[in-house]
Structures are given as C-alpha cells and as structure tokens.
Amino acid sequence: MSGTNTSGATSANSVESDSPTASSEFDTDERTDDEYSRRGFLETAGAMGATGAAVGVSGCLGEDETETTSEQDFVWWTMRGYIPEETEAIEETAAAFEEWTDEEINLTTNVITWDQVFEQWQAAIQGQNTPNVSEMANEHAVDYGSSGVVRPNTELFEQYDDWYDTPSFWGNYEGDVWGFPWFVEVRNFYANMDLLDDAGHNDVPETWEEMIEMAMDVESETDETGFTSSGAQATGTGQVVYGATAQSGGSFYDHDGEEWSVEIDSPTSLFAHLWMASFQEEWDIAPGGWAGMDGTDAEQLYREGNAAFMINSGDAANEMIDDGDDVADVTELSTIPEGPMGTNSAFMGGSCLSVFDSDYTEHDADDDLSLSFVEYMTLPDTMEGYFPQATPNFLPVREAQEEIPPFTENTTDIPDEWIQTRLDQAEQSVRYGISGPERNAPFLGDLEGSTDAYSVAISGILGADDDPKEAVVDMANQVRESVDDEVDYDVEENTDEPELEDVPDELQDWISGDNGTPQIWNPYE
C-alpha cells in the first residue's frame, strides 16, 4: 500500500487548540451568522461554474505543505483536534482504511477547528477542492445535500435497524438520509455529593422537584451555589432551555406533513423559559452574574467545589479526571432529573460523516469509496480503535456500538458509573429543530447560528430583564422570517403572546405551587 500522511496535519488557515474546553464552546452545534449562512453558500456555489477557480484552501496540504497528486489520494476532514489522545487514535484508525479497502489509496487526515471549518467548506466548494469525506452535523449535510454538493447515504444507513431514536431521523430530508451519524455527545448532570451531604442529602435528585429543593437546601446550609449551567447568550444556554422544553412536552418546531411551523413561542416553551429563569428569579439557586456565564465559567465554578449541581458537556468530566481535581472524587454523574412529562431527556450534540459529491472533490476517488470509508469508520470493530480515547464525549448512535470498549471493558480513568450514565443518557437525548418534527431541513443549521443556538430569549430574560413573553415571540418571529425565506409557502409572523393557562396539565402544579411543587417565577400574576 502507498504511504500515509497521518501526522495530524491541519489544512491552511486552520488553528488547532489544545484546550478541551474549546469543544464545549465550539462543538458541533455552534456557529455564527458569518461562519454558516446557507444563502452565502448558495451565492458562492452558484458562481463556481463561472469562476472555475481554485479558490480557498487545499484539502490535501499538511503541516509540511506537501501536496499529493495520485488519482487515489483520499482526504477527509475532522474537527477532533481538541484532545491530543483522541486525535491521534482517530488518525491511526483512519489510516488503517488503506489496508481495509480493496482500493489502492493514500489517505490524509486533516484536522480543522469548528470555528474555521465553515468558511473552509465554502471556499473548497467554490474551488471544487473539497475533501472526499468531512465530519459535520446532519444540519450541514442536509443543507449542502439539498444544493447537490453532498450526496445521500440512504442505502448504507438502511443496512442497520438499531439506531437510537434521535439519530434515526436526524438526517432525514425528502426521502433520503444525508450524513451518516458518527457519534452523539450529551449534556450531563453533575452532582457534588459533599455539598449535598452538608445540606442533609445523600442521594442525587431523581426529579426536577428534588433537584430544586436540594439546591435550595445547599444554598441555605452551605452558602454555596445550588445549581449552575451556561446562562449567557451562548450555545450551552440554549441547549439547557431546549432540554427543559422537551421535558415539558414541547418542541421548537413541528411539521404537519406538508409545512413547517415554529413553536418557540408556544405556551410550553414560555413555561420552560420561566422555569429556567426561576433558578435566579424565584428560587435563588443560580450563581451571581449567571447571565454573563458561559459553559466554561459554569465548569470552573463547579470544579472549584462551589456548586452542588451542574448541567454541562462531557468535557468537564474529562478535565476533572485528567487534572486530578478533588471534586472528581465526590462527583456523581447521573441522567438529567425526570421532568414533568416523566422523561430524562437531555440535549444531544454530535457529528455525522458526509460524502462530498465527486464533482466537487479535489481528488478523484469515486463516491462508493467515500461511502466505504464512512462505513469503515462507524463499524463497531473499527470504533474500538478510538472510542476509549474519546471517552466520555463519543457515545454510540446505535445499539450494536454499545458492545465495544469502554462500554464493555473500561480501560480509561473515567469511573465505570460515569460511562454507564452517559450511555443511558445517549438513548434519551433530543435535538432542537429535529426531535419535534422528527426530520431535518436545509434551513435548520443556519437558524441555530442566527439565534445563538436559541439562547437569545433566555439570556435577555436573565440579564436584561426582557419581558419573557415578548422575548420568546421576538425570537420565534426572527426564526419565522428566516424559514419563510427558504420555503415556498408563507410562515406568518405571530402577534399573539403565549399564555401559561394553555400549557399541558402536567405543568400546572409548577405554575400554582400546588401539591408540594416549587412554584415558578411568574411576572404575570
């Protein structure tokens, strides 16, 4: 077989970060308007035929600026550059594809950061020098696929029937599947058992009610913070409020078989925003300055032993173990406490692998070879090569992948209980834009960026005293305007504010404070 460049090369203009925390802030769900705009993409892609230019970055340049030229050169892009051990294991596993396939190929892995990849995708598409395969989220795959740049992988996807719920429809669009689910990563619930013990509790909370009552006890008995998460206008903030919406029986979108509707300003969504705001406004269990805290700030507060509960990504777990934090020894990781509708759902991040159509790739490896690489990288036997190093962030997307280390044999320093909890949580995960309608659409990725991952309303409520009803309606209408630009029917602006009296019956005790349920903050009483 031909030689392999797997030295962790980065393509031109990319910047690697050694900080694992970076992936919690720039994970697969975060982008800005400039970094990810479907309209901008279409404009550049439309100009491609006229320019014929090799504009942008070359997908085959490594750190040594050496360009390979064989017809069987094969390049793929991954954003797994934040944890060195994880990166190395993925590179080595990908390199072994040269032996696995019947084709003579020279495979190069290019590592790119999430904050760089959006403009690099656009430049590579315009210059017709994309990689053969790229990591992305299914929202990106559907967007690019609807424009003919990324090809579907429906037949490969349908070879398996053991998909977890959300990954099973994450890439569905117009009868095809776009992007092949690679892994999911979920928001975790962290509990400092020392602080709970000081407050008179020896178990993690199983329900929302127990979580709030325990957090209030921590505040009164220890003077430490009861609960923390991201509260600023940031990706993690919107993820927490969406998880609360799903646990309350709501969603941010729906689809009736013909048309999309926006549910961000529904009564249930209003309830979820008020419930989250109550941590600060009613129950006083959130940290001071919460509205200015992102996920990194929340993690620091928890790791210093100053918060009883935290919802955050898995990076915090990795860091606590790697750095030998004292709080790691007293931390229990559990599934998100059960919400009013009886579910333990948490927000799901993650990535898929997508095949760029060979008309756009720099190297002339055919589409079937690219799909073969996708299949290879997601087989359980292959995943054994890098899943242990990617623990606890990488979690399976289907049941067969549960039968590999570290889920069957834990060779990591991560406690067995933490790994099992994350595996349990992966099966109970939801994703904004996807879980309600159970399908994808080309406009969804762009909308996540334009609303800072749906954190605009809650951050305004927490930090600027925005009226909650007006805040959710304004965010929903901003989304409606964007959807209206992308579909061939009218998505009308909403002028009616949601009313709490219209929420499901299961939520009413939270509004009234009846039956021992903590009463939410209600500025409309």
Your description of this structure?
The chain is an alpha/beta fold and 525 residues long. It has two domains: 5-186 and 348-429, D-Maltodextrin-Binding Protein, domain 2 (3-Layer(aba) Sandwich); 198-347 and 439-512, 3-Layer(aba) Sandwich (D-Maltodextrin-Binding Protein, domain 2). The chain contains 23 helices and 16 strands. It has helices at residues 21-25, 38-46, 48-51, 84-95, 97-100, 114-126, 138-146, 154-157, 165-169, 193-198, 208-222, 235-247, 267-281, 295-303, 315-322, 326-329, 367-378, 380-383, 416-426, 444-450, 456-464, 468-484, 508-512; strands at residues 5-9, 73-78, 106-111, 133-136, 150-151, 172-173, 176-177, 180-186, 188-192, 225-228, 253-255, 260-262, 307-312, 331-334, 346-356, 429-430. Strands 1, 2, 3, 4, 5, 8, 15 and 16 form an eight-stranded mixed beta sheet that branches. Strand 11 and strand 12 form a beta hairpin. The longest helix is centred in the last third of the chain and has 17 residues, at 468-484. Pfam families: SBP_bac_1.
Report the span from N to C terminus.
73 Å
By secondary-structure content and strand pairing, the structural class works out as alpha/beta
Number of strands: 16
CATH topology of the largest domain: D-Maltodextrin-Binding Protein, domain 2
**CATH level 4 superfamily of the largest domain:** Periplasmic binding protein-like II
Quickly count the domains. Answer: 2
Assembly of the depicted chains: single chain
CATH architecture of the largest domain: 3-Layer(aba) Sandwich
Rounded to an integer in angstroms, the radius of gyration calculated over CA atoms is 23 Å
Low-confidence stretches: 1-70
Strand % is 5-15%
The level of helicity is 25-40%
**Overall residue-averaged pLDDT value:** 88
The CATH class label of the largest domain is Alpha Beta
Number of helices: 23
